[in-house]
Design a protein that fits this description.
Blueprint lengths: L7 H13 L12 H14 L6 E2 L2 E2 L6 H10 L7 H27 L3 H11 L1 H7 L5 H19 L5 H19 L2 H17 L12 H20 L6 H14 L10 H9 L6 H12 L2 H18 L13 H9 L5 H28 L8 H23 L3 H31 L2 H16 L4 E4 L4 H8 L5 E4 L2 H8 L6 E5 L11 E8 L2 E7 L2
Parallel strand pairs: 3-4, 3-5
Antiparallel strand pairs: 1-2, 5-7, 6-7
Helix pairs in contact: 1-4, 1-5, 2-3, 2-20, 3-4, 4-5, 4-7, 4-15, 5-15, 5-18, 7-8, 7-9, 8-9, 8-10, 9-14, 13-15, 13-16, 14-15, 16-17, 17-18, 19-20
């Protein structure tokens, strides 16, 4: 029998399946997805493209590129859907898989390219964010494009001017996607790598003038557009101060200790958690130029995001292509394969145990039926058994392929069976519909609907009500004053806030959304 040869096109087809399949079958889930969906919806409906508007007001949280991409994908349909909101992330991750494979082939030969791509697209965090309407998949591919251009220059495959222009153009787009981190990441990776090479002087040939000029031209053009198009409502410096400096120094929503990523990376790197330490150790021992680059890349991203007070697991997504290539490089020599095979065998055995235990420990009542618990578990058990057998036979590449394909099967089953079943408790659609109907008369009379202490829920309510905006209140006194009006008015509040009000309002509906126990209340 002819041996199956894994190729780039196979990995890209798998990536398209993982990131796109059934992305249309369930709603945008709070807290993050409706924020971007609503910003794009308002662009499509209102035609305000210069600066993003969310919940009817200018938002300074994020630059506009991701909103633009969702809005452009939605224009043919005249509305933002679950698929059009997630499409930019899916396409970004497919492109990131292609770039990851290209870099892996450069470092470790043709065989390692598809393996690195397979590892990348089946890593849990990559799969999760590749099918989410969140900005980090776009940031990942743009940072990857910038560091790929730098590595092409470092290896002598591209001239300094051309590579530098590609680097700075990618960094500019990354900045338009997520602010200063978009250029700080690739710039830091490049400079740390050159410092380790003891070759910092070569930076002078890397488009030293034309590259930064191109960057400033692209980013500056949007800054001017935002200042003019925002009609005085948008401040670039104010956005930088609030969402970069204050987040870094004081934190806003996600304060975490310095060692946070040591805790979350093992979970988010599933199913390659056990292989990565061996891969890093092997790269450290080899100390060749490719390994220096990969280690500097991964380490810089993790350390960069470990320093600020505010941290989230998805922030370090730009390091995941480097992780995938490091794992693929363990195939290069017998010693490296032995170093990686033993821990992966342990992981395969653990997969069998988890798969057997899941139907017992996962709740099966209500939204998660028995079949939805058992079918993905069978895939996990079969994957673990196949990978364990391949490890026993000393076939690490076979174990990697078995693990990746089995994990991909579990992902597809989850997207098919579990996510649509969870929609009823994750989506704000029903609550938003009730809100729109209940408040229609009050809003027609000119009264605001307010929101208090409900996190990012106002964006989801605006999105699924088709534009019912809530005025967000920061103080309990303002909520009490609103509900104290003589006219009948409404509020969306965290139920805990009801206890501190002077008079108990009428509770029209209760639900749990985005981690909050939420009530729609009226003052009479």
């Amino acid at each position: 029998m002819r041996r199956f040869m894994l190729r780039t096109r196979h990995v890209l087809a798998l990536a398209a399946l993982l990131f796109l399949w059934n992305a249309w079958a369930y709603d945008l889930w709070a807290p993050d997805e409706p924020y971007f969906g609503e910003g794009a919806r308002e662009m499509v409906v209102d035609g305000q493209w210069a600066v993003p508007h969310v919940n009817g007001a200018v938002t300074t949280d994020k630059p506009p590129l991701f909103f633009w991409l969702i809005a452009i994908a939605s224009l043919p349909f005249h509305r933002v859907t679950s698929l059009t909101a997630r499409l930019p992330s899916a396409l970004a991750m497919i492109a990131a898989a292609a770039l990851t494979m290209r870099l892996a082939r450069r470092f470790a030969g043709e065989r390692a390219g598809p393996v690195a791509g397979l590892v990348f697209v089946t890593t849990y965090l990559v799969w999760d964010k590749g099918r989410s309407a969140q900005i980090d998949a776009l940031l990942c591919v743009l940072v990857l494009a910038a560091v790929s251009a730098f590595e092409a220059y470092r290896a002598g495959d591209l001239g300094g001017r051309r590579a530098g222009l590609l680097f700075w153009a990618s960094a500019a787009l990354a900045t338009l996607a997520k602010g200063p981190v978009g250029f700080l990441l690739p710039l830091g990776i490049a400079l740390v790598t050159l410092a380790l090479d003891r070759n910092l002087r070569s930076w002078r040939a890397f488009a030293p003038a034309s590259g930064p000029v191109l960057f400033l031209g692209l980013v500056g053009a949007w800054m001017a557009l935002a200042t003019i198009g925002g009609h005085g409502t948008y401040s670039v410096w104010g956005a930088f101060e609030k969402h970069v400096l204050e987040r870094a120094v004081h934190g806003m929503h996600h304060k975490q200790p310095f060692w946070y990523y040591a805790k979350v990376l093992p979970v988010q790197l599933v199913p390659w958690t056990m292989m990565l330490p061996a891969a890093i150790l092997a790269a450290w021992r080899r100390r060749d130029p490719g390994d220096r680059f990969l280690l500097a890349w991964a380490a810089f991203v993790v350390v960069f995001f470990s320093v600020p007070v505010e941290k989230r697991d998805l922030y370090v997504l730009p390091a995941y292509p480097a992780f995938a290539i490091l794992v693929a490089r363990t195939l290069e020599a017998p010693l490296l394969r032995r170093l990686a095979t033993a821990p992966h065998a342990v992981w395969a055995a653990a997969m069998i145990l988890v798969g057997l235990a899941a139907p017992v420990i996962v709740p099966r009542e209500g939204y998660l039926t028995t079949i939805r618990a058992v079918i993905p578990s069978i895939a996990v058990v079969l994957t673990g058994a196949t990978a364990l057998w391949a490890c026993w036979k000393g076939r690490l590449e076979g174990a990697i392929k078995a693990t990746a394909l089995g994990t991909a099967t579990a992902y597809v089953l989850t997207a098919t069976l579990v996510f649509p079943a969870l929609n009823g408790i994750k989506s704000a659609r029903t609550f938003a519909g009730h809100l729109a109907a209940a408040t229609a008369e009050s809003r027609a009379a000119g009264h605001d609907v307010v929101a208090y202490d409900v996190g990012n829920l106002p964006e989801a309510l605006a999105f699924y009500s088709g534009g019912v905006y809530t005025r967000v209140l920061a103080e309990p006194g303002a909520l009490a004053a609103h509900l104290g009006q003589p006219a009948r008015v409404f509020a969306v509040v965290n139920e805990e806030a009801l206890e501190g009000l002077p008079a108990m309002p009428v509770v029209l509906e209760r639900t749990e959304l985005a981690g909050h126990h939420v009530a729609l209340v009226a003052n009479r």
